[in-house]
Amino acid sequence: MAYRNKTYVAFDGDRDMHYYNLMRAWRDNKGFSFNFFDAHDLNSARDSSLEYSIKNQLSERMRNTKVFVLLIGESTQYLYRFVRWEIEQALKRNLPIIAVNLNNKNGIDRNRCPAILRDELALHIPFKQRAIEVALDDWPKQHDHYTRRGQAGPHYYNTLAV
């Protein structure tokens, strides 16, 4: 069994890559306390020729994941080929899910959130460095607590991290 210490970040690679790159810049900036172990650093050699080979690489990354972050932009809910599959994998593996609204809404944005995630146990937060940092530290423990109690549905922070 793989050691699960990574953060898997899913997003619209065509439209929202700059948000993912900003998260990496926060992590790499010594002036910030923000940190995460990026699952995308694993098997970074890309074989983009076939969908199943890409999904095999993504599956390997998921096996090393302890928390799943979904960056939700304007078009995320319409991405079925990979993003929906990644969400399905996170749900199947019972990974803590942090849904990050790129429009900075705190709480679920039912106009943008993929339908598959709307009623699932997930934390919905704004795209703010402090909110993401607190969520990465706190949500996995809360997720386990809610899972043991059989609770589901969207969650959010009142004002703690926003």
In short:
Residues 8-106 form the Thoeris protein ThsB TIR-like domain. The protein has 162 residues and is α/β, with parallel strands linked by helices.
Can you characterise this structure?
- The protein is of the alpha/beta class and 162 residues long.
- It has one domain (6-155): Rossmann fold (3-Layer(aba) Sandwich), CATH 3.40.50.11200.
- Helices cover 36% and strands 15% of the residues.
- The protein contains 4 helices and 5 strands.
- The chain has helices at 17-28, 51-63, 80-92, 129-148; strands at residues 6-10, 65-72, 97-101, 122-126, 154-155.
- Strands 1-2-3-4-5 form a 5-stranded parallel β-sheet, sandwiched between helices.
- Helix 2 (51-63) runs parallel beside helix 3 (80-92).
- Anisotropy-based shape: globular
What is the CATH topology classification name? Rossmann fold
Strand content: 15-25%
Percent of residues in helices comes to 25-40%
- Top CATH class: Alpha Beta
Number of helices: 4
Mean pLDDT: 86
CATH architecture: 3-Layer(aba) Sandwich
Rg, Cα atoms, Å:
15 Å
Largest sheet: 5 strands, parallel
As for the number of domains, it is 1
Q: Which class do the helix and strand fractions yield?
A: alpha/beta
Strand segment count: 5
Q: Segments where pLDDT lies below 50 for 5+ residues? A: none
InterPro entries: ThsB__TIR-like_domain, ThsB_TIR-like_sf
Domain Thoeris protein ThsB TIR-like: 8-106
Pfam family, one: ThsB_TIR
Protein name: MTH538 TIR-like domain
